[in-house]
Automatic annotation (TrEMBL):
NCBIfam families: PRK07726.1, topB. Its EC number is 5.6.2.1. It comes from Geobacillus subterraneus. It is an enzyme of class 5 (isomerase). This is DNA topoisomerase. Belongs to the type IA topoisomerase family. The keyword tRNA processing does not apply. InterPro entries: Topo_IA, Topo_IA_2, Topo_IA_AS, Topo_IA_cen, Topo_IA_cen_sub1, Topo_IA_cen_sub2, Topo_IA_cen_sub3, Topo_IA_core_domain. PANTHER family: DNA TOPOISOMERASE 3-ALPHA (PTHR11390:SF21), PROKARYOTIC DNA TOPOISOMERASE (PTHR11390).
Length: 718
């Protein structure tokens, strides 16, 4: 007999769904079959069953937040069971200890966190039996069966566990010491709040605050441009006055007016026509970061929302593993594309793109490159295709993005001609016109790029043609400050450690980029910054709060605010995951950093200057007794839904990124804890009166839809 341990209950149910089974308490019994002649037990964690022990577990005096107890550096890290999950751990432990069980199959998510969660469960159960690893990039029945046939040796993925463990311990050490020392020192300056500091979240916050400072310090200046309308025969076009250095802006309004007056009605001659042809290859396939950035730009989805929707599509078996950092596939995946595309061609949304210009990309190294595939290949639709019209609106939008990327990869390059025309007025004044002409739309018929088409189409012009400057005007403008980041741009910034890349450059980001965080954690970091009142998002733009400005000012130029330095640490963690760096050596560095962080903060505190920031407003929110109250089991992951102050949510979010939340106000109505308890226990609330939408008021019951995994309204019968 074998015990299979999944990461979450729904994942366990999906993996067991291809077999005949009997449901038991806390596990599923798989009946004998070709893959498991003696049958098997399928059980699961509920995300992280264990958490790193708090400081007081090591020393009682470490419980109080005082400067003289810092730094906190345990000699050896310990885990403790989460009380709410002890029952499930007992189920797993009993299964593992059964005499007939001779092998364990690790079936956690195919990534670092999945590796850590299940290995911790096995290690802390005290059972020492052979382990093999199920490693999947999609959850179709075919992929699940194939995965069980090709189990990996557990040593193959052990370095990923060591990386995840080192990451967790490093984050604990840095976060625990830095958060305490800065909170205590800032409290001495009158700010009675918790200032959370983290190895990844803080340099990300520093990028946001740095941009805000640039905006605040920016001083707008007026400028003037001279625009001429030319008439040459029956051809008309516009040009912008340009000096010998290529500058179009004048700081002197009178000078601009004099140029306009001089040129008006004068002879104009085409002095030069230059055309440059550019070829644009279809974009690479999506990894998580590029998909999050694109969904934010097109639909204003937060990175977390995109990941949640993608996870839902993955659980349904219709897209591949969502937390991939690769934009390429192996030959094995490329061989499945013709069949996938054939199925997609039958849906009205995609039928017009077929037949494809390129029936296969198997030999195209731009997409098919084994060397550039890391733990997982790019995010692609699986052979279990669905009509996008049958998905929810959010799922349809994300699935459509993934599908169109694959279709576009089978199309020709787009070809553009960019023309620059130089026109001389009265032989002296130089005007430049820029235009673009589409030669071949290519893949752009499938994916319309979301940049603005700035260049107009110019008429065909030849050097020496002459006419007149029929009209000349002066246009006033002013310099604009740098733009605030969107949430999608933050994802890209984190991936590139603060170097901003536009859409055309995204594909140049190397697979080994020394970025902040990982594909799996970046969305959670941004969500964390919101929850900890460091940032606010308005109209998709990210604003830092006064609390954020205070923290980054206090940190100054320390390592914790440095995206570049933190990115190098991220690279070292990746090397541990690849088996080329020592976890022990890394942790020794982290311990030294924790000591340095404390010493540097205490030394710098007397010189802190917070002029221009409303420090008096930075005070801990008075918490009511209800915060932390347990309301019932989480319907998504089996965790516990608690009162979080501003909303009701799963207590496993920080560990498993479980997305279950209920707002405390929905359509103008307060949702009581009593109704949430009833919803979690029975699937529906009492009738709630007075919801408001579109100027109308209605009564409804809130219902948890088990199939759609979301809240919906149920209207009472009249």
């Amino acid at each position: 007999m074998k015990v299979i341990i999944a990461e979450k209950p729904d994942q366990g149910a999906t993996l067991a769904s291809i077999f005949q089974t009997k449901k038991r308490q806390g596990y599923i019994e798989i009946l004998p079959n070709d893959l498991f002649p003696d049958g098997a037990y399928m059980t699961w964690a509920i995300g992280h069953l264990f958490q790193l022990a708090p400081p007081e577990r090591y020393r009682p005096e470490w419980k109080r937040w005082t400067l003289n107890t810092l730094p906190i550096v345990p000699e050896r890290f310990e885990y403790e069971i989460e009380k709410a999950k002890a029952k499930q751990f007992q189920v797993i432990k009993e299964l593992l200890r059964k005499p007939e069980v001779t092998e364990i199959i690790h079936a956690g998510d195919a990534g670092r966190e999945g590796e850590l969660i299940v290995r911790n469960v096995i290690r802390l159960s005290g059972v020492n039996k052979p382990i093999r690893r199920l490693w999947l990039s999609s959850l179709t029945p075919k992929a699940i069966a194939e995965g069980f046939r090709r189990l990996l040796d557990e040593q193959t993925t052990r370095p990923l566990y060591e990386e995840a463990y080192a990451r967790a311990c490093a984050d604990w050490l840095v976060g625990m010491n830095a958060s305490r020392v800065y909170s205590l020192l800032l409290k001495e300056r009158g700010m009675n709040d918790v200032f959370s500091v983290g190895r990844v979240q803080t340099p990300t916050l520093a990028l946001i605050v740095r941009r805000e400072r640039e905006i605040e310090q920016f001083r707008s200046e007026p400028f003037w441009e001279v625009i001429a309308s030319f008439v040459i025969g029956d051809k008309r076009y516009e040009g912008k006055w340009t000096d010998e250095n290529g500058q179009t802006r004048l700081k002197d309004e009178e000078m601009a007016k004099r140029i306009a007056a001089f040129c008006r009605g004068k002879r104009a001659e085409v002095a030069d026509v230059r055309t440059e042809r550019k070829t644009y290859q279809p974009p690479l396939l999506f990894n998580l970061s590029t998909l999050q950035a694109t969904a934010n730009k097109l639909y204003r989805f937060s990175p977390k929302k995109t990941l949640d929707v993608l996870q839902s599509l993955y659980q349904k078996g219709i897209v591949s593993y969502p937390r991939s950092d690769s934009m390429h596939v192996t030959r094995g995946e490329a061989e499945t594309f013709p069949a996938i595309l054939q199925k997609l061609s039958s849906f009205p949304a995609y039928a017009s793109y077929f037949p494809l210009p390129r029936p296969s990309i198997l030999q195209n190294k731009r997409y098919v490159n084994e060397k550039k595939v890391t733990d997982h290949y790019a995010i692609i639709p699986t052979e279990q295709v669905v009509d996008p019209e049958k998905l929810s609106a959010d799922e349809r939008n994300v699935y459509d993005l993934v599908v169109r990327r694959l279709i576009a990869a089978h199309h020709q390059a787009a070809v553009m001609d960019y023309t620059t025309v130089t026109t001389l007025v009265d032989g002296r004044a130089r005007f430049v016109s820029k235009g673009r002409q589409v030669v071949d739309e290519g893949w752009r018929t499938v994916i319309r790029p979301h940049e603005e088409e700035k260049d107009a189409v110019l008429p065909p012009l030849e050097r020496g043609e002459a006419g007149e400057a029929a009209a000349v005007k002066v246009k006033e403008g002013k310099t604009e400050p740098p733009k605030r980041y969107t949430e999608g741009e933050l994802i890209t910034l984190m991936k590139t450690a603060g170097t901003f890349l536009d859409d055309e450059e995204l594909e140049k980001v190397l697979a080994k980029t020394e970025g902040l965080g990982t594909e799996a954690t970046r969305a959670a970091i941004i969500t964390m910054l919101k929850e900890r009142k460091y940032i606010e998002v308005k109209n998709n733009l990210v604003y830092p709060t006064d609390k954020a400005k205070v923290l980054i000012e206090a940190l100054g130029g320390t390592i914790l605010a440095s995206p570049e330095m933190t990115a190098k640490w991220e690279q070292r963690l990746s090397e541990i995951g690849e088996g080329t760096a020592s976890p022990a050596a890394f942790m020794e560095q982290v311990k030294k950093l924790a000591q340095k962080v404390v010493a540097d903060a205490i030394a710098a505190a007397p010189a802190w200057n917070f002029n221009g920031v409303d420090t008096a407003s930075i005070q801990r929110t008075r918490t009511k007794k209800t915060i932390g109250e347990k309301l019932g089991p989480c319907p998504l992951c089996g965790g516990t839904v608690i009162d979080k102050g501003t909303l009701y949510g799963c207590d496993q979010y920080a560990k498993t990124k479980c997305s279950f939340t209920i707002a405390k106000r929905i359509l103008g109505k307060s949702i009581s804890a009593a109704n949430v308890k009833k919803l979690l226990a029975k699937g529906k609330t009492n009738v709630i009166k007075g919801f408001k939408k579109g100027g109308k008021t209605f009564d409804a019951v809130l219902v948890w839809d088990e199939n759609e995994k979301k809240l919906s309204f149920q209207f009472p019968k009249r």
